[in-house]
Amino acid sequence: MWKKLIIGNWKLNGSLAANKQRFNAVASTAGALTDIDIGICVPYPYLFQAQQCLSCTPIKWGAQNVSQFAQGAYTSCVSAEMVAEFGTTYALLGHSE
pLDDT (tens digit, 9 = 90+) per residue, 32-85? Predict the structure, then answer.
């Protein structure tokens, strides 16, 4: 049987301190939700923090977007391979504002 999946993101918001509070709050309730998988897709600069804060929890993390390109001269683009190096499980693609 498939589990339900809930993924959230917080757009152009966040700081190291605020993120830590969010990660802790979500992780503290995740243990009670055994029939639901939970993911958080964060802005690129916070991928390392997500990996550090969530790696010992059932919460999965990912990026808010990835480029269609694997490499090249695409300023400010981030490839799926780049975000995968942070242990990401998910990426949001083509979501609307």
Answer: 778 889 999 999 999 999 999 999 999 999 999 999 999 999 999 999 999 999
The predicted model scores a pTM of 0.89
Q: What angle do CA 43, 63, 90 make, to 5 degrees?
A: 155
* Beta-bridge mates of residue 4: 36
Alpha-carbon distances, residue 40 vs 13, 19, 35, 77 (angstroms): 13, 11, 17, 20
Instruction: Compute, in degrees rounded to 10, the torsion defined by CA atoms 73, 78, 81, 86.
Output: 140
